[in-house]
């Protein structure tokens, strides 16, 4: 179980607990449940890399405590 921190740079910082074998789509659903935003309106990225929904957190080498950027489409 890992904890990922997502910051939307608008004052909202979300901490989500998930497994390393979860996909980015699963992470989006967990973030949507906490923020009240629809999962299809969320974009997760780090610098200029936009993460795809079907790839796992382990494949992107996302570890415990990593900070990601949260954007709304």
From TrEMBL:
Entries under Pfam families matching the protein:
ubiquitin
The portions of this protein that span the membrane are none
Q: What InterPro entries would the database entry show?
A: Hub1/Ubl5, Ubiquitin-like_dom, Ubiquitin-like_domsf
Q: Where is the Ubiquitin-like domain?
A: 2-73
Keywords recorded for this protein, A-Z: Ubl conjugation pathway
Q: Which PANTHER family match?
A: UBIQUITIN-LIKE PROTEIN 5
Name the UniProt record assigns to this protein = Ubiquitin-like protein 5
Q: Which organism is it from?
A: Durio zibethinus
The organism's taxonomy opens as:
Eukaryota, Viridiplantae, Streptophyta, Embryophyta, Tracheophyta
Gene behind this protein: LOC111294101
């Amino acid at each position: 179980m890992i904890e990922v921190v997502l910051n939307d740079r608008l004052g909202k910082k979300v901490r989500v607990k998930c497994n390393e074998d979860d996909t980015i789509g699963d992470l989006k659903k967990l973030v949507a449940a906490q923020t009240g935003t629809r999962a299809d309106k969320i974009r997760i990225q780090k610098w200029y890399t936009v993460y795809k929904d079907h790839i796992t957190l382990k494949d992107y080498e996302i570890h415990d405590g990593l900070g990601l950027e949260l954007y709304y489409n």
